[in-house]
Amino acid sequence: MQNTSHDKQEKSTSQKTALGHIRVLDLTRVLAGPWCAQNLADLGAEVIKVERPGAGDDTRSWGPPYLKDQDGADTSEAAYYLAANRGKKAIAVDISTSEGQHIIRELAKKSDVVLENYKVGQLKKYGLDYESLKQLKPDLVYCSITGFGQNGPYAHRAGYDFIVQGMGGFMSLTGERDDLPGGGPQKAGVAIADLMTGMYATIGVMAALTHRDRTGEGQYIDMALLDVQVAMLANMNMNYLTSGKPPKRWGNAHQNIVPYQTFATSDGHIIVAAGNDGQYRKFVQVGGRPELADDPRFISNPLRVQHRDTLVPILADMVKLKTKKEWIAELEAAGVPCGPINKLDEVFADPQVQARDMQITLPHPTAGLATLVGSPIKLSETPVSYQAAPPLLGQDTDTVLQEVLALPESEIAQLKSQGIIA
């Protein structure tokens, strides 16, 4: 393994992290890039988030709601910003100035990874593109995240998650059936193209770091929201590629499995996911309709899919006869996969979610404490490390410039007076 690009004291065995030897220069904002950077920070990397003086990441103001300070008043940190920026150090640098560009180049020389999500070609005019920084640090891993990638007819378009969900086919599959009330295309409840691009970018960065550690060679990573949206359609892609027929929307039902959908109980909704004939048989037995398991129209999954318009209304009437709690208890006892549809207050009150430490609390400079969501990555030997709450704008500018670049206080003060840093 080669030496890392920056000096750090070895952590004790109890504090070791997977990426504790890595420094990431994060030039991204909004969601896809910050999500990748937050994953790397959780895994122990030192992440330096670079923002515009005065304004910062757009999502800082994407509220309400905002984090409350210790007196109950709104802080400047929107909940949206808090979702994707824990564990980072924040510096404010105006990269449109030659002095700001020099600072970024010097930081890149001392970093292992650069993340950016500017429009195609935008950083080249500042001398902060991959080819420019590669001359300063040949083993640099440089990841660009855009809507449509670095080539192709759409490369220079701005990329927005909502638009990509439509262009990439996701919304053709999501939403109620066109022939039912409320039918039509529907986006996901979260920015799924952004989030999945952040996840794929994380994988790409770690693969590139592994290659660098084996060979000493850096590389460029070209991530596009549209590519990711297309790739993540999984079995629906293959349904089309094997049949030549674009899949339709099925709402809360499954195109290939019946019953595998939501049902209304007497007091709420449940999900029933009968993935095989045995589970279907147990489901109708619990519902007091065992004859439905032996009905020749419904005896196998292919037949249930063929006759779904006949079977599902019968099952829906059956499910309405019991409460949500009764159904879940009886189906779980029978071994039929099922579950409730929880609101977020119910999610974070769920004992399983609590047992998995999916809600965390970290010290925050204005709120006192910030309640955040934990990482789902559970590593036995190098567990995730929650290094800090999402930082205030420019919170670490002085510290980073002094410790990483060894700038004297007088030079930092002059850069501040010129508005180049904050």
Automatic annotation (TrEMBL):
InterPro entries: CoA-transferase_III_domain, CoA-Trfase_fam_III, CoA-Trfase_III_dom3_sf, CoA-Trfase_III_dom_1_sf. Signal peptide: none annotated. Keywords: Transferase. Transmembrane segments: none annotated. PANTHER family: SUCCINATE--HYDROXYMETHYLGLUTARATE COA-TRANSFERASE (PTHR48207:SF3). This is CaiB/BaiF CoA-transferase family protein. Gene3D superfamilies: Crotonobetainyl-coa:carnitine coa-transferase, domain 1, formyl-coa transferase, domain 3.
